[in-house]
Amino acid sequence: MKQFFKFVLATVVGITLVFVIGFAILLGIIAAAAGSEKTVQVESNSILHIKFDYQINERTPNNPFNNLPFFGDRKRNLGLNDILTSIKKAKTDDRIKGIFLDESYMMNGQATTEEIRNALLDFKKSGKFIIAYSEVYTQGFYYLASVADKIYLNPKGIFEFKGFSSQITFLKGALDKLGIEAQVIKVGTYKSAVEPFVLTKMSDANRTQVTSYLNAMYGHFLSGISAARNINEDTLFNYANSGRIQLPEDALKYKLVDGLKYKDEILDDLKHRTGKAVKNDVASVELDDYTKSEIDATTNPKEVTANKRIAIVYASGEISGGEGDDNSIGSETISKALRKVRTDDKVKAVVLRVNSPGGSALASDVIWREVMLTKKVKPIIISMGDVAASGGYYISCAADSIFAEPNTITGSIGIFAILPNMQKLFNDKLGVTFDGVKTGKFADLGDVSRPLTPEERALLQNDVNHGYDSFTKAVANGRKKTQAYINSIGQGRVWTGTQALQIGLVDRLGNINDAVKCAAKKAGIKDYKLVSYPEQKSALDKFGEGLSAEVKAHFVKAELGENYRIYEQIKGITKMMRTPQMRMPYDIVIQ
Fold first, then answer.
1. How far apart are CA 192 and CA 331, in angstroms?
2. pLDDT mean over 27-48
3. Looking at the annotation, which residues are catalytic?
4. What is the pTM of this model?
């Protein structure tokens, strides 16, 4: 009886604790929501302080957990949408005297950096200044900072200027040791997404394509810095290729930076530029806070009618069936959004913002169909982000017009399937065997406990061939090319945005604002309101469905750091082994 009461008491205490913690979190969410509506006041002669030390998503996530104390940093990680809007607002805001680009790492893709860089270039047209400072300049941050009026480096800091590299993680050796064979069925000479599972190094075809797009992206990188710093491109190439930049003094000597200073000296400079006494603090506003500031009377845009709208539909992440979220594309979610904007008479045109390496072939086709139907009713324009490849390109190809950044990764027109043969793992490693009966020779097709038979492989190859034929036909129709031509530039090959423009896979080089302007022009409207889809879930909705997932992701990221990307890659392997994939070759990371 004593033990019984002991267990009952423990249970009651446990339930009480769960209730108290849950209630505290709920109060935190409510407080965060209330706090987010509070207007931030901006002083006159202020500096807009910008620091990118996080992964930049397409949209600012509506994430209540960012504001809870035990999740660490309480600030919001702004999405590209709010970053661009804030820089544009600051351009004409008389309270903002300049921008301070502080230590950043630019952990996003290059096209995202390009969009922010172009926004900063536009900001400079106002005559306001941009000052950049860092203790460590990565190549990504330096490319962004190169537009600044003055670039400063810590006297003991690090300046990275060495060229681009891209490395692939091959898993075949590990699979061999485990007794797992990756059985690959694919179409496309360059469709190299399967290579990490069947090879131990890059194929010649893959090396050719990686060399091509890496050199193209590096050339664009050097061209941008050359124009900003007035240094010849060949000279910049030689600086990197000869390892000329080793010390901060080298960066100063070769005019890549304007001075070597400590942070306190930079702050004094900013005080001088804004008319502040040295003993006073710099009047500054964080980018996150600035999004919540009142617009100055001189910056108020003219009233636009709510009856004329351009919808921006965000499709970001891997493509799969069902519902998606801020970081993944669910075919059902995007389809609903496209149907909604298609039938809304107030929406006069649509911009589909695509930032995706692809994914499920079936889910991609579902979204492609909705794009086709939308095109019949109203203009639909594609704006490509860091990557819009394979399935990401498939959902784009039917649109009226396609915009890409010069360093967008796109193309990868191909399809593959992977089925693991785990017979050796089960039999030799684990001592597990299987036996059973079936009503036909293909009844157990897909059984991972044995290798494929020649007939089964032929069936799967036929399925993949059919998918590739549908892919190339859809692209040919959308781009008004012959299927033979699309096949010649397809084969799974990856292209940059600039290369894609040359071969006809995209129509123009430009950012999301260019795509919006194009949509407005095609719709024949000048004044319009921008609306975003899919609608982001409320804080309470996320609380109800995602606390455990958010907590888990937070602590895994905190533990693995930069290796979280590899963890995500390994998790993604199981998805690729289920259905035919329109997916880019691995996750391209350029360093």
1. 25
2. 68
3. 191, 390
4. 0.86
